[in-house]
């Protein structure tokens, strides 16, 4: 699964059965992840590609926005990940592959 705002992303030219691309006008990972049941822990692994670009500001979206965990009972909602691979790609991009640990 690839989520991007880039309508010209090179992945659009890739023909693979296991590739699903979501293109949004404005990046809204919260909506994507909620739609994919991240809180239900239906994922076995997560690949994240980190681009070498600094973006900031108090209103900048994070990887997973949403309400903060404020109670001890909510700790079970945390998605605990275990890094299984880190790959350096072209132009200083990083590909991080995590297994969902709990």
- Count structural domains: 1
Radius of gyration of CA atoms, rounded to a whole number? 15 Å
- Give the strand order of the largest sheet, numbering strands 1, 2, ... along the chain: 3-5-4
Number of helices: 1
The secondary-structure class comes to mainly beta
Low-confidence stretches: none
- Fraction of residues in helices? under 10%
- Judging from the principal axes of the Cα atoms, what is the shape? globular
Biggest sheet features: 3 strands, antiparallel
* Helix and strand element order: EEHEEE
- Proportion in β-strands: 25-35%
Count the strands? 5
Overall pLDDT confidence: 82
Separation of termini?
Answer: 21 Å
Helices and strands, with pairings:
Layout: E1 2-4, E2 21-23, H1 29-35, E3 45-50, E4 81-88, E5 94-100
3D structure, described in words:
There is one protein chain. This protein has 102 residues and is mostly beta strands. It has one domain (2-100). It has one helix spanning 29-35; strands at 2-4, 21-23, 45-50, 81-88, 94-100. The strands form 2 sheets. The protein has a 3-stranded antiparallel sheet with strand order 3-5-4, with no helix packed on it. A two-stranded parallel ribbon has the order 1-2. A hairpin with a 5-residue loop joins strand 4 and strand 5 (94-100).
């Amino acid at each position: 699964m690839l989520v991007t705002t880039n309508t010209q992303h090179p992945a659009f030219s890739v023909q693979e059965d296991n590739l699903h691309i979501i293109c949004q006008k404005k990046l809204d990972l919260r909506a994507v992840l909620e739609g994919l049941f991240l809180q239900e822990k239906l994922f076995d692994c997560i690949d994240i590609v980190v681009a070498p670009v600094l973006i900031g500001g108090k209103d900048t979206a994070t990887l997973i926005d949403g309400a903060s965990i404020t109670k001890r009972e909510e700790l079970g909602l945390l998605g605990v990940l275990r890094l299984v691979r880190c790959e350096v790609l072209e132009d200083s991009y990083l590909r991080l592959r995590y297994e969902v640990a709990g």
